Amino acid sequence: MSTVTQWAWLIPVFPLAAFLVLIALGRASARTAVFVSTAAGAASFALAVAVAAEYVRGAEDYTYEGPVWLRLGDTALRLGFELNRLNALMIVVVATVSLLVLVYSAGYMRGDPRIGVYYAYVSLFSASMFGLVMSAHLVQLYVFWELVGLGSFLLIGFWYAKPEAKAAAKKAFVMTRIGDAGLLAAILLLFWNMPDHALDFTSLHNAFADGRSPVSEPMTTLIALLVFLGAVGKSAQLPLHTWLPDAMEGPTPISALIHAATMVAAGVYLVARMYDLFLASPEAMAIVAYIGAVTALMAATVGAVLTDIKRVLAFSTVSQLGYMMMALGAGAYAAGVFHLFTHAFFKALLFLAAGSVIHAVHTQDIREMGGLAARMRTTAATFAIGALALAGVFPLSGFWSKDAILASVLEKDVLLFAIGVTGSFVTAFYMARLFFLTFYGPRFEGGGKREPAESPAVMTVPLVALAVLSAVAGFIEWPTGWFDEWLGRPKGHESAGWPVMMLTTAVALAGIAAGWALYGSRRAPRRGPVGRTSALYRLLERKYAFDEIYEATVVRPVRTLAGWLAVLDERTVDGAVRAVAAATVAFGRFTGRLQNGQVQTYGVAVLIGLVALIAVAAGRGIWS
Amino acid sequence: MTATSPYLTLAAVLFCIGLYGALTKRSAVMVLLSIELMLNAVNLNLVAFSAGGWLPSLAGQTFALFNIAVAAAEAAVGIAILIAFFRSRGSSEITDMTTVGGGRRRGRAQ
């Protein structure tokens, strides 16, 4: 049955080959780069769909254990890959968004002199993401986890001439590194404690199944929390979320691919993959759920006041990832994964549509936009679909997934449900605000910019494709329950009841109405409900001052310490080295005086030598 | 037997004075002078051993005569070279008689 699946290892190989080819070509022509990368992306996409189709038809989980990679005492780690239903779903998501972004980038990045490098990095990232998803054991996953972080770093800092881009790339890498340290600690703890030191997912599943655990309860919680720390870093949850808004310095297609659909989903994927571990520790699940919920609400409130279109979407991503974590923490595995699936599509759509707008008006500040709906019809329409999906309006995909989350959470904990519903309202509100300020209202006279026109087809076709997916992806749930059963976890609750559906729809429509009232209608003041100078507004605008707090508590002490260490290095260590060098030079200079071309000096040397010789001879009693 | 020690002592002292002069004097003429002094000290030594000492014979005195002749010839040649050098270089200081740098300039810091 698994005839195509055994070729699944090719899925990461195609983009990897594209990366190597493009690196080898160096300053490749734009056409070559686009062609090579897109061809690889298309090949991966076709194969991914074929593999996923097999799994939809009910294929068995497939693990391939390849050559031994690393021997550690008695155990050996092998290279290999694994396919199961969760994987197959993720692969399709990654492949679809990757392919669409590759096509879109041909238009967005046209004219950039380093486009060959750009496509090389995107291919590297794709290969790493596929490898991460298909990894058979934790160590291999960790390798790809870091590679994905590298791809993100390279692409955020793509326009490295901009100091903000460089700073953002470093910030992203360092902050996710903090999470990665947690994940590494978890891997080490598991390695010590697992029977046979096995780290592959099958063994982990067997060891932790049914709530058992090979280690004590506190240790299980610790390991789960360390794994979650890795996810917090990668998925930009509180408190490691501040890198994601800054990551918007990178090109917009990258924001769509990496920071909306794939890399940030890797954290959610990790928790889902290690779900047995989490199920064995209720305390860890609770922490996951609450961090997710608080992140969801907090990020949504910040998104309501920002003026940079990409940063609003970045905080939206943080918020939606919070919803996924909340779902997973509350036991709603299928709902969380389902939301990951739908979110990838509509968030990528929103980012690419924003990119289309930015491409047309050359600004990211929504205060400088307005009235674009008439000129950019396709972009406006697809953005609207994405926004409605995000807000959770029936019958788009976001409605189904968000509803599934809220319904599951309601059974678990009413507080989480309340936070989730409030977050929904704010989500709908800020998306409405974004949409109306960008596309409607009076056109801001921006001072001699080119007349904004609709983007070329190579950019709008992906938008339409993603819009279609955002609209229909929700129907994968029909007939109800199929998706959850397929993913292998019982739903744990009956399908969302009508009251919840009505409530969530009402909340979403209320948010949109509020947004329309304040920003969309003709007499709208186009200003927020809170005054500009109020303390609340300022707090939100500064994103709850997280950056400032980190600057004061972490960055400055580290810089000071680094300064002291630098002085120590300069004075003591370098001083010792310089002293050795100086001594050598001085010795050389001193003995060099022997060779000064003066006969009398040489005569003295002869005399001294002769006297020494006589003394030695006399001392020995031998007359030589 | 004639006591040889006083003669040997004198010869040694003269030799040392001559050696000192040869190694430290700046003027080339003084160096040649010192060399002559060393040769004369050697002559004294030879004659002293020819008279007293371990195997008295006439060979010592003969050697000393030859030495005087050689010293005279060598002094003449030395002066000739010195005059030629002075004519070309314009100085008769030992420290200038080198093509390697670092003679008189040694005094300044590098």
List the helices and strands and how they pair.
The complex is a heterodimer of chains A (624) and B (110).
Chain A: H1 10-25, H2 30-56, E1 62-72, E2 75-83, H3 85-108, H4 115-133, H5 138-156, H6 163-193, H7 201-208, H8 217-234, H9 243-246, H10 252-261, H11 263-273, H12 275-279, H13 282-303, H14 309-329, H15 333-361, H16 377-391, H17 397-412, H18 414-439, H19 457-472, H20 482-487, H21 498-520, H22 535-541, H23 546-592, H24 599-620
Antiparallel strand pairs in A: 1-2
Helix pairs in contact in A: 1-2, 1-4, 2-3, 2-4, 3-4, 3-10, 3-15, 3-19, 4-5, 5-6, 6-8, 8-11, 8-13, 10-15, 11-14, 11-15, 13-14, 13-18, 14-15, 14-17, 14-18, 15-16, 15-17, 15-19, 16-18, 16-19, 17-18, 17-21, 18-21
Chain B: H1 5-24, H2 28-51, H3 59-89
Helix pairs in contact in B: 1-2, 2-3
Give a written overview of the molecule.
The complex is a heterodimer of chains A (624) and B (110). Chain A is built from 24 helices and two strands. Chain A has helices at 10-25, 30-56, 85-108, 115-133, 138-156, 163-193, 201-208, 217-234, 243-246, 252-261, 263-273, 275-279, 282-303, 309-329, 333-361, 377-391, 397-412, 414-439, 457-472, 482-487, 498-520, 535-541, 546-592, 599-620; strands at 62-72, 75-83. In chain A, strands 1-2 form a two-stranded antiparallel sheet. In chain A, β1 (62-72) and β2 form a beta hairpin. Chain B has a single domain (4-89), classed as Helix Hairpins (Orthogonal Bundle), CATH 1.10.287.3510. Chain B starts with a helix and ends in a 21-residue tail after the last helix. The model of chain B is unreliable at 103-110 (pLDDT under 50). Chain B: InterPro entries: NADH_UbQ_OxRdtase_chain4L/K, NUOK/Mnh_C1-like. Chain B: It is found in: Cell membrane; Membrane.
